[in-house]
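Can anyone check this?
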Amino acid sequence: MNFSILKKSGIYDYKLKPIKSDASFREYFRIDIKRKKEKLLLVNSPNKTENNKGYLKVTNILEKMNLSVPKIINYDLNKGIFLIEDFGLNTYKKSLEQGESEYKLYNLATDVLIHINKNSKKIKKKLPKYNNKKLIDEVLLFLKWYWPFIYKKNPGKKITQEFINIWKKLLSKNLNTEQVIVHRDFHIDNLFFLKKRKGLKSCGLIDFQDAVLGPSSYDLLSLLEDARRDVDDKIIYKMYNKFVKELSQKQKKIFKKEYETLAINRHLKVIGIFTRLFLRDKKEIYLKHIPRVWKLIELNLNSSFLNELNEWINKFFPKKYRIKPKL
C-alpha cells in the first residue's frame, strides 16, 4: 500500500493501526498523529472492486444536504487511496450495546431519511437509477449462492426463469413511490451517533458510495428490517408510521405494497450475499444472521398480492431449508 498521501497532506510523525474491515475489499487504518488531536482514517479502496468515483460524488451530494459524512481530507483516485475524517467508535451498533436509547437512535435515523427524501429532487440526474433490471440482478444472488449451498447443485434454467418472471411482475406493478436518493445499505453498522453534533448532523453516514435514485421505501425497510439485529416491534411501528405520516390513505397503501415487495427482494439478496461472503471471502460471521432474514421474509409474505412468490418459496424452500447453511 502506498502511504505517500500522508506526506502530501503534511503528516510525517504517525502510527497506523489496522481496524476491522467491513464486507467489502476496503482496508482501513486509524492514524495516530503525534502531537495532534485530529482523528483521521487512511482507506485503501481498490478501484477494481470499489466504486470510488461514486464515493466522491455521493459525499458531495450529502454534504450539500447538510448531513454528516466523513470529510475527505485528500485522495488519490488512481491508486484508490483516501484520507478521511474518522467518526470514531460510536456506530449505532456500539451505541445500542452501551445503553443508548433505541428509540432516540432510530428516530434520528428516520428523520435523516425523511430529510433525504425531501431534498432529493435537486439531484435526480446525478445518480444511476435503481431500475427493475438491477433489482432482479440483485435478487438472483439468492439463486446463485444460497440455492447451490442448500441443494448442492444449480437451480437450472427453468426454475431461474420462473423466479425472474415472478419478480418482473411484482416490480412492474408495485414500485410506485417517488424516486429519491437510496443509500442501499442503511443499517446500524453504517450509522454513527456523533454526540457532540446537533440535530440531523448527530447521525453520521458511511458506506454510501453505491447510492442510487430509487424507491423511497427502500432505505426505511433496510433500517427497520435489519439482517443483523432484532429491532423492537414498537420501534418499527412508530418509525414506519412517522415516515408515512404525510401520505394520503391511497399513498399509504401504495407505499405498503412497495415496502413489502422490496423487503423480500432485499432479504433474498442479503441471504445470497451472506452465503457468498462465506464461500468466496471466507467470512463465516455473516451466516448466523440467515435464520433472522428468513423470519423477516416470512413476515412480509402474508399479503395476497405476493401469493405467487409465496408458493414458489414454499415449494423450493420449505421450513427445513430456511436455515444457516451447514459448513
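Reply from J.R.: I decoded it. The chain has two domains: 4-85, 92-321.
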